[in-house]
Amino acid sequence: MSSRIIFLLCLLPISILCAPELRYNVGDPIEVHEMHTNDLPPLNPLEPADNAFPKQPSAPWVPSCTYTGYFRDPFNCRKFYWCSGTSIVPEAFYCQPGWAFDAWKHVCDYAEIVEC
């Protein structure tokens, strides 16, 4: 356990449990460092979310279930649908980030090797 964590734990009211040499005494000096905001590097803007809303809303594309199987969403390579013979409405699924649905193999695969 690092000394910083031990120091913080020993500041708690249960300092009786700490060894005497690890306890904070009121007369002990404390290091204080001044920091200015211009000392910190600026943060770069974040990329917009994958699920950002379009400027003009549109109805989502949903395949019609004419047969049992998988269908890739034509607008989002990570999204795919499963149609079963018992359901008219398909179930939607997503591949994990960095992966895309391969319409030929019917599996999620690395996005770099999937044609989209």
Automatic annotation (TrEMBL):
InterPro entries: Chitin-bd_dom, Chitin-bd_dom_sf. Keywords: Signal. GO terms for molecular function: chitin binding. The keyword Signal applies. GO terms for cellular component: extracellular region. Residues 1-18 form the signal peptide. Residues 62-116 form the Chitin-binding type-2 domain. The keyword Ligase does not apply. Pfam families: CBM_14. This is Chitin-binding type-2 domain-containing protein.
